[in-house]
C-alpha cells in the first residue's frame, strides 16, 4: 500500500461547528496527523449531530483546552511548535484576544501555516453569519424551505483543505509559513454561479429545459435522467422507441417503477437513477 499524500504532516484544528471538522476529516483521510482542540463546552456539532461528529473526528486526537486559561494556552503553543498547519474558524478579533492572530503566530512560529475559515472576506471578517445567511445572500435558498445541503460549510471545508495543502507547498518552496483566508460567503457566491448564470434556472440547460436532463415521474417514485451527451440521448431514445419529446418520455416512464428503470438503465449503459430520500448514515454501513 502506497503512503498517503499527507503522511507526516501535523495539523492542529481549533475549528468547531461543521466547516472545520469536515476539513480536518478530509486532511485525516489524506494521511495528516490531526489534533482537534475543543473548548470545555465541546464542539456544538457533537450535540447537533453526534453520529456525524463521530465520523468526522475518526482517527484524530481530541484535546480539551480552555484557551482563556494561561496554562492551557501554553499547552496549545507547545502543540503548535511541532505543527505544520493550523486550522481556525474564529473571528480575527477573537484570535487576537488570545494572541493567536497571524502576526503573532508567524513571529513565534515562522514555519507554521494557517488556514483561517471566516464568514466574510477581508475587513468584513467580523460580520456574523452561518451557512444559512451566506446562502440567503446569494440566492440559493427557496423560502420557506430550509436547505438540505450546506454548500457554504462543506464547500468551504474542501476549499480550506485545498488552501491548506497549497500553503504547505508554498512553504516547501520558501521555507516560510503561509496564511490563507477561506471566506464561506465567497464559497457560497461561487456555488451560486450556475443559477445566477441561468444554467440551472427553469429555462436553463441544466434546469429542466432539455428533455434529456430532468426528473420524471414513474409508476412508483421518480427518476433522474441525465442523458446529456449525444450518444446517451441517441441510445435512450432508440431503446425506448420514442422521438424524444418531453411528453414522449413522460408517458413511457410511467410504465415502470423508479427502481425498475434504474436497473434497466444500468443494463443499457444509461445515466438514470431512482430519486431516493435521505437515509440515516448508519443504514449505509
TrEMBL record:
<dbReference type="InterPro" id="IPR023606">
    <property type="entry name" value="CoA-Trfase_III_dom_1_sf"/>
</dbReference>
<dbReference type="InterPro" id="IPR050509">
    <property type="entry name" value="CoA-transferase_III"/>
</dbReference>
<dbReference type="GO" id="GO:0003824">
    <property type="term" value="F:catalytic activity"/>
</dbReference>
<protein>
    <submittedName>
        <fullName>2-octaprenyl-3-methyl-6-methoxy-1,4-benzoquinol hydroxylase</fullName>
    </submittedName>
</protein>
<dbReference type="InterPro" id="IPR003673">
    <property type="entry name" value="CoA-Trfase_fam_III"/>
</dbReference>
<dbReference type="Pfam" id="PF02515">
    <property type="entry name" value="CoA_transf_3"/>
</dbReference>
<dbReference type="InterPro" id="IPR044855">
    <property type="entry name" value="CoA-Trfase_III_dom3_sf"/>
</dbReference>
Amino acid at each position: 500500500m502506497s503512503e498517503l499524500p499527507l503522511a507526516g504532516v501535523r495539523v492542529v484544528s481549533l475549528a468547531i461547528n461543521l466547516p472545520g471538522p469536515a476539513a480536518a476529516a478530509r486532511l485525516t483521510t489524506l494521511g495528516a496527523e490531526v489534533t482537534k482542540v475543543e473548548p470545555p463546552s465541546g464542539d456544538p456539532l457533537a450535540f447537533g449531530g453526534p453520529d456525524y461528529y463521530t465520523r468526522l473526528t475518526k482517527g484524530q486526537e481530541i484535546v480539551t483546552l480552555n484557551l482563556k486559561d494561561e496554562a492551557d494556552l501554553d499547552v496549545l503553543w507547545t502543540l503548535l511548535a511541532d505543527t505544520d498547519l493550523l486550522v481556525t474558524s474564529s473571528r480575527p478579533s477573537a484570535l487576537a484576544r488570545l494572541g493567536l492572530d497571524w502576526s503573532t503566530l508567524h513571529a513565534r512560529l515562522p514555519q507554521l501555516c494557517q488556514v483561517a475559515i471566516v464568514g466574510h472576506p477581508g475587513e468584513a471578517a467580523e460580520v456574523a453569519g452561518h451557512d444559512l445567511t451566506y446562502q440567503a445572500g446569494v440566492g440559493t435558498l427557496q423560502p420557506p424551505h430550509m436547505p438540505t445541503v450546506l454548500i457554504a460549510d462543506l464547500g468551504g471545508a474542501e476549499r480550506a483543505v485545498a488552501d491548506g495543502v497549497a500553503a504547505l507547498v508554498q512553504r516547501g518552496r520558501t521555507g516560510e509559513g503561509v496564511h490563507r483566508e477561506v471566506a464561506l460567503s465567497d464559497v457560497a457566491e461561487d456555488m451560486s454561479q450556475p443559477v445566477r448564470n441561468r444554467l440551472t434556472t427553469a429555462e436553463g440547460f441544466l434546469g429542466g429545459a432539455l428533455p434529456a436532463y430532468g426528473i420524471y415521474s414513474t409508476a412508483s417514485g421518480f427518476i433522474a435522467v441525465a442523458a446529456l451527451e449525444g450518444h446517451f440521448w441517441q441510445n435512450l431514445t432508440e431503446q425506448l422507441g420514442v422521438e424524444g419529446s418531453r411528453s414522449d418520455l413522460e408517458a413511457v416512464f410511467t410504465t415502470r417503477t423508479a427502481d425498475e428503470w434504474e436497473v434497466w438503465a444500468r443494463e443499457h449503459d444509461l445515466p438514470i437513477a431512482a430519486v431516493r430520500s435521505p437515509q440515516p448514515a448508519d443504514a449505509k454501513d
